[in-house]
Amino acid sequence: MESVDKSNGGRGNSFPTTDWGLLADCRVGSPAARLAAMDILIRRYWKPVFMFLRYSGADVEAAKDSTQAFFADWIENDVFSKADERKGRFRSFMLTCLKRFTSNARRAGSAQKRVPSEGLLSLDELMSNPEMPFEPSDPMTPESAFQRAWACEVVQRVLRHLEIECARTGKQIHFDLFAKRIICPILEGAAEPPLANLGATHGITEKQAANLLQTAKRAYQRLLQEEVRLYADTETEVASEIRDIFKILAEK
């Protein structure tokens, strides 16, 4: 497989786009680079953090405050000095940091509201997305809630990339078939709709629908690998992380 330059560039950014690179910018970059890097990390990962805190027993407002405080703590303290992509997965690193933060906050009895420094974006803005359920509905542990929210976010982020790509290349039917046949059943736990029925809604045969679906699957796999490379260091880790994502989503 072609090697990936993870040092810079990608999608029009002027700083490293891998998560490990973003952490490096947060640690040693200019104030502008640190703020931009942290903005991206918050947008990618606030939901797993928030869901961990909700399933830890915090109400919505307390979880919002603690989510803000967690990312503020990443900036204000020396968290980034401990980040090393050679020592393990980024997902595990963030979860470990979150557990430590929660434990320290509990010991300190700190229930006060903290406003992130350096102009970080408001969590209220990010929470305006109606796709995000905020009330725990299943008897999950905080860690499993974090893992599932992480996996769902990755899958949905890649789905949005696929939708944009399909719209740009005139393959909207490909996207519709893939989203309804593959992704919605995974995320919602519903049965796969018959491919013949999906094809009929677009005026194509079941065989034609199957061919389009296969093309969409290949595109999604490619985009998923690109997404996971943002935080996985090796191709072996990329493959392992993708397997883990779908294993997490398959758990009830």
Features:
252 residues, mainly alpha
Low-confidence stretches: 1-16, 113-117, 132-136
Order of helices and strands: HHHHHHHHHH
Structural domains: how many = 2
Number of strands: 0
How large, in whole angstroms, is the Cα Rg? Answer: 20 Å
Q: Tell the overall outline.
A: globular
- Work out the helicity level: 55-70%
Main beta-sheet annotation: none
Oligomer: single chain
**Mean residue pLDDT:** 79
Distance between the termini: 34 Å
Q: Roughly what fraction of the amino acids lie in strands?
A: under 5%
Total DSSP helices: 10
Alpha-beta content class? mainly alpha
Question: Can you walk me through this structure?
Answer:
- With 252 residues, the protein is mainly alpha-helical.
- The protein folds into 2 domains: 1-137, no CATH class; 141-252, no CATH class.
- The chain is built from 10 helices and no strands.
- Helix 2 runs antiparallel to helix 3 (60-76), helix 2 packs across helix 6 (142-168) and helix 6 packs across helix 9 (206-228).
- The longest helix has 27 residues, at 142-168.
- It is globular.
